[in-house]
Amino acid sequence: MKKCGYCAKQITYHQMFCNDECHGKSNKFYEMREHLSSVFGVFNMVCLIGMALGIFLMNFARETGLYIFAGCGVVLAIIILLIPLPIDNMLDKWKIKKAVFATRIIGLCVMGLALIAFLLALFVF
């Protein structure tokens, strides 16, 4: 059986979505993705470069490196939580609803990692 493009419920082969609500939510998601993907990509790249720079600086100035890593990680996590844009492979496999949920879980994990780095910088070093 074929699955709904938004919620992954089983549908007939002649349908794309199980109801109009799923169709509307799917259109809204793809419009948001089209408008925000370039902004998300730029922030994602800047934060990842900042996190790599923070890891590099940990060799020389441990506390500064941890602060940079934690700051960029928190910003990246907030962006992922507010604008969950899963990759195409996730969308194909899990459909929109489950892929957005998984992306938000990844954002929470990044936030946890950044907060651990911040606490390390604050109390250990």
Structural topology:
Blueprint: E1 2-3, E2 10-11, H1 20-57, H2 62-82, H3 88-124
Antiparallel strand pairs: 1-2
Core attributes:
125 residues; mainly alpha; two-stranded antiparallel ribbon; 77% helix; 3% strand
Characterise the protein shown here.
This protein is mostly helical and about 120 residues long. The protein has one domain (about 35-125). It contains 3 helices and 2 strands. It has helices spanning about 20-55, 60-80, 90-125; strands at about 1-5, 10. It has a two-stranded antiparallel sheet with strand order 1-2. It is elongated and about 60 Å long.
Please, how many domains?
A: 1
DSSP summary: helix tally: 3
Largest sheet: 2 strands, antiparallel
Low-confidence stretches: none
Helix content: over 70%
Radius of gyration: 19 Å
Mean pLDDT: 93
Per DSSP E runs of 2 or more residues, the count of β-strands stands at 2
Estimate what percentage of residues fall within beta strands. under 5%
The ordered string of helix (H) and strand (E) elements is EEHHH
Shape: elongated
In terms of structural class, how would the helical and strand content be classed? mainly alpha
Give the strand order, joined by hyphens, for the main sheet.
1-2
Produce a short descriptive summary:
The chain is mainly alpha-helical and 125 residues long. The chain has helices spanning 20-57, 62-82, 88-124; strands spanning 2-3, 10-11.
